[in-house]
Specification:
Blueprint lengths: L3 H22 L5 H8 L3 H8 L7 H11 L5 H9 L5 E3 H4 L5 H13 L2 E6 L10 H15 L5 H16 L5 E7 H5 L5 H14 L5 E6 L13 E4 L3 E5 L3 E5 L2 H17 L3 H15 L1
Parallel strand pairs: 2-3, 3-4
Antiparallel strand pairs: 1-7, 2-5, 5-6, 6-7
Helix pairs in contact: 1-4, 2-3, 4-5, 7-9, 8-9, 11-13
Length: about 280
């Protein structure tokens, strides 16, 4: 598994490669020719296109203008502006415990009107009961060896859920793998209460809950869990880092992935039947 810093470097290289392709497609066969037209040094073009430096806004405008495709600037800008913030290492984020992390996420939740959330192995935070949230956070605390504030962090997450999820003016699309219903966090009572809560929430008018059965014919492979906040950003939680994507093209891609996953899911009474099966399996 690559480190977050290595991933940032790879993202910088990917952006550089994209700019190199734009240059060549525009008829500038060499970096020297492009540099002469842009009024830059050849070394600057080389550093940008080999991912040694992140290009600035004016640099990106020049690539967009000389490529003859000014509209591409928005994607280029989003990619460059957020490369440095794409990965936030969990070990650094969690140094002060999990409660501050939960608090920091509140403004994003409050301003989002449309949530699209996919989780392959856990119940999403917005749908978690306090006991289930505390069980999961306790495991994170044990794994990373960080200050134990699982109860406080679970309380913050629960209040966030109550304030946001009950708002009938928002829309929530959830797609879970059936495995998320079967993965046991906490004791049997904790899991039974969590699954019962999932059943209750599934009938709320602002909530769409889909579950992909274990035996579903796959048209889209399982992915890491991701959250789409309006058309603003995608947040992906990896094992060692959190990744944020803000490029319009990336958001569009994840929206397509979410739609494909949703097509494999069952909803309504069929989804609740799978939840019931998971509850019965606890007994």
């Amino acid at each position: 598994m690559s480190t977050p810093l290595a991933a940032v470097a790879e993202a910088r290289k990917a952006l550089g490669g994209r700019l190199r392709d734009l240059r060549r497609q525009a008829g500038f066969a060499t970096a020297r020719a492009f540099a002469a037209r842009a009024g830059w040094s050849e070394a600057k073009v080389s550093r940008i296109e080999h991912g040694k430096t992140t290009p600035g806004e004016d640099d990106l405008r020049m690539y967009a203008r000389l490529s003859g495709d000014p509209a591409v600037y928005a994607d280029l800008y989003a990619a460059a502006a957020h490369i440095e913030e794409m990965y936030v290492e969990w070990s650094r984020v969690h140094q002060a415990g999990l409660a501050p992390v939960q608090e920091a996420a509140v403004p994003q939740y409050e301003r989002t009107r449309h949530f699209r959330i996919y989780e392959p192995g856990v119940i999403p935070g917005l749908l978690q009961t306090p006991a289930y949230a505390k069980a999961i956070m306790g495991r994170i605390i044990d794994f990373w060896g960080i200050p134990d504030d699982a109860g406080q962090a679970a309380d913050v997450r629960t209040r966030r859920k109550a304030a946001v999820l009950r708002d009938a003016g928002r829309r929530f699309g959830f797609v879970l793998e059936e495995a998320a219903l079967r993965a046991k966090f906490g004791d049997t009572a904790t899991m039974a209460a969590q699954l019962a809560h999932l059943t209750a929430v599934s009938v709320w008018p602002q909530v769409s809950l889909g579950i992909i059965p274990l035996g579903a014919q796959r048209t889209m492979w399982p992915n890491e869990g991701f959250w789409i906040f309006d058309e603003e950003r995608v947040v992906i939680e990896l094992a060692g880092a959190e990744m944020t994507l803000k490029e319009p093209s990336q958001i569009t891609t994840y929206a397509r992935v979410f739609a494909e996953l949703a097509r494999m899911a069952v909803f309504g009474k069929d989804a609740r039947a799978l939840i019931g099966d998971a509850i019965n399996a606890l007994e």
